[in-house]
Amino acid sequence: MDLDLNGKAALVTGGNRGIGLAVAKALGREGARVALLGRDRHSLAESAAGVGPGTVVVRADTTQDVEVRAAVDRAVFELGRLDIVVNCAAPRATPGQVPGLAGLDDDDFLRQMDTKALGYVRVVRAAAPHLEAAGRGAVVNVSGMNARLTGSITGSVRNLAVVAITKNLADELGPFGISVTCVHPGLTITERVADDTAYAEQAASNALGRPVTAEQVADVITFLASPRGAVANGSVITVDGGRPGVIWT
Questions:
Q1: How far apart are CA 234 and CA 169, in angstroms?
Q2: Cα angle at 46 between 83 and 34, to 5 degrees?
Q3: Between the CA of residue 94 and those of 48, 71, 90, 151, 154, what are the distances in Å?
Q4: Are the beta carbons of 87 and 13 closer than 8 angstroms?
Q5: Rounded to an integer, what distance in angstroms lies between the CA atom of residue 245 and that of residue 201?
Q6: Burial of 73 (0-12, 13-18, 19+ CB in 10 A)
Q7: What domains are there in the chain, each with its CATH number?
Q8: Is there a contact between 118 and 63 (Cβ–Cβ < 8 Å)?
Q9: 180: helix, strand or coil
Q10: Separation CA 163–CA 54 (nearest Å)
Q11: Residues contacting 198, CB < 8 A, separation 6+
Q12: What separation in angstroms does the CA of 77 have from each of 5, 56, 83, 189?
């Protein structure tokens, strides 16, 4: 299927690792020109080499609006335009926390919200004029299945916030030809956990009976970022292999 991405310009936040890096590579294979945004310039440069020639690197901390605006403008300057934004930049979930109220760390809660929720908004706010100038485009926000699970207040709220942000942006930017969608990965095999047997076994506890890889999540995101995926505007897509016994409405 031709996704009509050849020559399109994409900005991927958190593009130096995990799902973000897999998305950048998938977009590159479809002919898109890609800019990676992250905080660590060294790891960004290493990752860019794996995405392909012409990949742009822009540094920003997404909790800092001035840095975000400068990085987005730089990416547009280097790429010549902007058609796609994929938001993946978020702190890793803190393992081993006591669930419920007893485990709620106020500082961590605020950090997670500032980076994953408000950080996504900052990026889209800076990118929106460029997307509108292109005439049509796409934003894909990577959230997570904790939006549909209890046990971690921080994990649930930060991911639910992304859902609410996505729908607000879909309603606002849709009339400009910009689709905005949200993706919920579950436990996903990335380079960080590629050799973790216990994690892979846990990740395989879905209806398919096998773990989902970052590359498979990236395939879904790439479709949603393409003109063919625009009709999904405002949608939330789960990419966890199917959690048994639960009906989503």
A1: 8
A2: 10
A3: 27, 28, 12, 13, 10
A4: yes
A5: 19
A6: middle
A7: 9-239 (3.40.50.720)
A8: yes
A9: strand
A10: 33
A11: none
A12: 19, 10, 13, 34
Q: pLDDT tens per residue, the chain (249 residues)? A: 899 999 999 999 999 999 999 999 999 999 999 999 999 999 999 999 999 889 999 999 999 999 999 999 999 999 999 999 999 999 877 666 677 898 899 999 999 999 999 999 999 999 999 999 988 899 999 999 999 988 899 999 999 999 999 999 999 999 999 999 999 999 999 999 999 999 999 999 999 999 999 999 999 999 999 999 999 999 999 999 998 987 876
CB–CB of 169/161 below 8 Å? Answer: no
Specify which residues 13 forms β-bridges with: 37, 87
DSSP 9-30: EEEEETTTSHHHHHHHHHHHHT
The dihedral through the CA atoms of 1, 230, 35, 161 has a sign that is negative
Pairwise CA distance, residues 20 & 38, whole Å = 10
* Residues, the chain: 249
Report the predicted TM-score, pTM, of the whole model to 2 decimal places: 0.95
How many CB atoms are located within 10 Å of the residue 38 CB?
A: 25
